[in-house]
Amino acid sequence: MTEQTPSTPPFRDPHLPFAKRIDDLLQRLTLDEKLSFLHQFTPAVERLGVAAWRTGQEALHGVAWMGPATVFPQAVGLGSTWNTDLVRRVGEAVSKEVRAMRAHDDRVGLNVWSPTVNLLRHPLWGRNEEGYSEDPRLTSAIATAYTRGLRGEHPTYWRTAPVLKHWLAHNNETDRATSSSSVRPRVLHEYDLRAFRETVEAGAVAGVMPAYNLVNGRPNHVSPYLREHLRAWTDEELLVCSDAGAPSNLVDHEHYFDTHEEATAAALIAGVDSFTDHGTDSSQILGRARRAYEQGLLTEADIDTAVRRQLSVRFRLGEFDPHHDPHAGTGEFDTPAHRALAREAAEQAIVLLRNDGLLPLAPDTRIAVVGLLADECKLDWYSGTLIHRSTPLEGLYERFGAERVEFAEGVDRVRLKTSAGTFLHVPEAPAAADGVRGAEGALDPALLAGRTDLPPLTTDATGTELALVDWGEGLLTLRAPDGRYLSVADDGYVRASADQPGGWVVQETFRLEPHEHGHLLRHVGTGRHVCVAAEGVKVADGDPEVWELVIAERGEEAVRRVAERADAVLVFAGNDPHINGRETEDRTTLRLPAQQERLLRAARSVNPRTALALVSAYPYAVDTTALPAVLWTAHGGQAAGTALARVLSGDVSPAGRLPQTWYADDADLPGLLDYDVIGGRQTYLYFEGTPLFPFGHGLSYASFSYGDLTARVDGGSLHVTFTVTNSGDMTADEVPQLYTRAVEPSVTRPRRELLAHERVTLSPGEKRELSFEVPLSAFEFWDVSRGGPRLEPGSYDILVGASSEDVRLRTTLRLDGEAGTPRPVFRRGLEAADFDEQSGVAIVDRTRTAGDAVTPQEGRTAELVYRNCDFGDGVTRVVATVAGEGVVELCLNGGAPVAVLPLDTATATPYDYTSIGAGVAVEGVHDVHLRLRGPLRLAHVGFSG
Question: Model pTM?
Answer without folding.
Answer: 0.97
